[in-house]
């Protein structure tokens, strides 16, 4: 239950990203700065925190062993995740981005065959290649059905161009985030805590953000004070608090693809938080009865996803032991 609760809290702070990114775009800010500034701001916060825990040197030693691997999967997990999300904010409202992002529930499950999971038996722990949890995926589809119902009325008023440019980058991000996160968990092998891993991935992704920011200077100019301020808020709420909470949740279920899928499913709560935030801060239109029905389905799907995952895990252990 603890990983699920951590995932829900992470979803709350992640939702701030969609709201503020849309706010910055409406104010004329470039998506390039919305993306890169977040990670630049994250570095000092995380460095101070990790140094305070006296874990900075072990992190640097770990990164020194495989610098290329760190840069590769950190760029995938952070760069190819957040840059497309910010790009989409220029073409679609926050609620559409937040709802489309829930594709990561399915994307994460589809990545299972790329990894091995640990199964405990009477003879000890064994490694098995992950399988796509098709039955559990059905529970995720309930969540996505709820998301579709929530946004059905609003999406009918968007142009085809807005849908394409607002949705396709999010699909890329939905695969990049769990792939990069899981690959780095595999590389770290439990030798680093969640704070070290988040800092390490942030540092390793800096070459990507530096190149992107140079491109931003040449094409869009420097960011405004308002965008810098809001990017700082995103860095603290989403980049530090939410990321650490989510990575802590995934670390607790590391090696178990069923439970990992359940934790990732908690991110569907971002839709509810994003809708509430836009109502309060951006004065968006109150959702219709159909949208509220979708929210109920999201909650039901989350509960079923969590319950089914735990049930499958127990059955799997029993079958292997026998």
TrEMBL record:
Species, as recorded: Neobacillus bataviensis
List where the protein spans the membrane. Answer: 31-51, 71-92, 98-116, 136-152, 158-177, 198-218, 230-249, 261-282, 288-308
Keyword Membrane belongs to the record: yes
Q: Which UniProt keywords apply?
A: Membrane, Transmembrane, Transmembrane helix
Matching entries from InterPro entries are given as:
EmrE (IPR032713)
Q: What is this protein called?
A: Putative multidrug resistance efflux transporter
Keyword Protein biosynthesis belongs to the record:
no
Q: Which Pfam families match?
A: EmrE
């Amino acid at each position: 239950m603890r990983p699920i609760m951590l995932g829900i809290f992470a979803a709350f702070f992640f939702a701030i990203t969609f709201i503020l990114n849309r706010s910055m775009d409406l104010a004329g800010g470039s998506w390039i700065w919305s993306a890169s500034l977040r990670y630049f701001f994250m570095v000092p916060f995380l460095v101070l925190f990790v140094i305070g825990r006296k874990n900075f040197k072990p992190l640097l030693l770990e990164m020194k062993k495989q610098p290329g691997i760190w840069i590769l999967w950190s760029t995938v997990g952070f760069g190819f995740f957040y840059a497309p999300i910010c790009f989409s904010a220029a073409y679609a409202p926050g609620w559409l981005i937040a709802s489309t992002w829930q594709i990561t529930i399915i994307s994460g499950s589809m990545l299972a065959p790329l990894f091995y999971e640990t199964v405990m038996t009477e003879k000890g722990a064994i490694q098995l290649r992950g399988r796509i949890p098709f039955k559990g995926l059905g529970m995720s589809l309930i969540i996505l059905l709820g998301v579709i119902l929530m946004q059905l009325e609003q999406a009918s008023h968007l142009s085809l161009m807005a849908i394409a440019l607002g949705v396709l980058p999010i699909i890329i991000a939905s695969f990049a985030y769990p792939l990069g996160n899981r690959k780095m968990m595999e590389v770290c092998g439990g030798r680093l805590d969640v704070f070290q891993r988040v800092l390490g991935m942030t540092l390793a992704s800096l070459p990507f953000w530096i190149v992107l920011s140079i491109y931003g200077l040449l094409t869009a100019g420097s960011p405004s004070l308002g965008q810098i301020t809001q990017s700082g808020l995103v860095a603290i709420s989403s980049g530090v608090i939410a990321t650490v909470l989510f990575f802590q949740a995934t670390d607790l279920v590391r090696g178990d693809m069923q439970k990992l899928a359940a934790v990732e499913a908690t991110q569907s709560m971002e839709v509810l938080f994003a809708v509430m935030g836009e109502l309060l801060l951006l004065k968006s239109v109150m959702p219709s009865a159909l949208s509220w029905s979708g929210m109920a389905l999201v909650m039901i799907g989350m509960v079923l996803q969590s319950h089914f995952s735990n049930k499958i895990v127990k059955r799997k252990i029993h079958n292997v032991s026998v």
